[in-house]
Specification:
The protein has one helix spanning 13-102. With 107 residues, the protein is an all-alpha fold. It has one domain (14-99). The chain is rod-shaped, with a radius of gyration of 46 Å. The protein starts with 12 loop residues before the first helix and ends in a 5-residue tail after the last helix.
């Protein structure tokens, strides 16, 4: 069987150019889409990192305030204990003076 040359599938230059143009446009859209997705992901990552950094900063400030409050409470308790010890010492000395004055040593 012979092939009819006139009916053979021949692409003309306009169709080839159109196919190439469509393929190039599809490739460009795909590239732009992936770049857009990458940019959006980077933006989300940056926002997440900034939010995390802010939370860490706030947590550190809260922990610092809590530690300062604990230090202040411990210092107040220490001062109260020292005052109670001083009061007990002065009362003991006073009692010793009082007892010493009433002991009869003439026996």
């Amino acid at each position: 069987m012979a092939i009819n040359v006139t009916s053979a599938n021949r692409t003309d230059p306009v169709q080839l150019n159109l196919r190439e143009t469509n393929a190039a446009r599809a490739a460009e859209r795909s590239t732009q889409r992936s770049e857009t997705q990458r940019t959006e992901q980077t933006k989300r990552d940056d926002q997440d990192a900034a939010a995390l950094k802010q939370r860490v900063k706030e947590n550190q400030a809260t922990q610092r305030q809590s530690a300062q409050a604990n230090d202040d409470a411990a210092a107040a308790e220490r001062r109260a204990t020292q005052q109670a010890d001083q009061k007990a010492d002065s009362e003991r000395r006073q009692q010793q003076k009082t007892l010493g004055g009433t002991i009869d040593t003439t026996a």
